[in-house]
Amino acid sequence: MKTEIYNVVIRPLVTEKGTFQSQALNAYSFEVSPNANKTQIKVAVEKIYGVHVKDVRTAMRKGKPRRTGRVLSKTKHWKKAIVVLDPEDHIDLF
């Protein structure tokens, strides 16, 4: 069970926009497994960080084209989850 939780949430996304959302809206961004659903993401974040999740929004992000010399390639597609917490809870990412 413990390894399944850590396979759902891959890593927190620390960006300028994400920092603003965490302060203003109490919403945190995570990179999650592409085949994880909202319920699995909610349970995983609650168990890993010990918080109460209020809402989960997800978005599939397309891979971007990259160039290495003459060869064109693409980065992989990935899934982003924005998790809104209860007003009493917060996550310390640093």
Any overview of this molecule?
It is a single chain. The protein is 30% helix and 37% strand. With 94 residues, it is of the alpha+beta class. The chain has one domain: Alpha-Beta Plaits (2-Layer Sandwich), CATH 3.30.70. The strands form two sheets. The chain has a four-stranded antiparallel β-sheet with strand order 1-2-6-3. The protein has a two-stranded antiparallel ribbon with strand order 4-5. β4 and β5 form a beta hairpin. α1 (2-8) packs across α3 (38-49).
Instruction: Give the biggest beta sheet.
Output: 4 strands, antiparallel
Please give the count of helices: 3
CATH topology: Alpha-Beta Plaits
Question: How do the SSEs run, as a string of H and E?
Answer: HEHEHEEEE
CATH class assignment: Alpha Beta
How far apart the termini lie comes to 26 Å
Structural class of the secondary elements? alpha+beta
Q: Specify the CATH architecture.
A: 2-Layer Sandwich
Count of extended strands: 6
Integer-rounded radius of gyration: 15 Å
Shape: globular
Kindly report the spatial arrangement of strands forming the biggest sheet. 1-2-6-3
Number of domains: 1
Strand content: 35-45%
Mean pLDDT: 93
Gist of the model:
With 94 residues, the protein is of the alpha+beta class. The chain has a single domain (2-85), classed as Alpha-Beta Plaits, CATH 3.30.70.
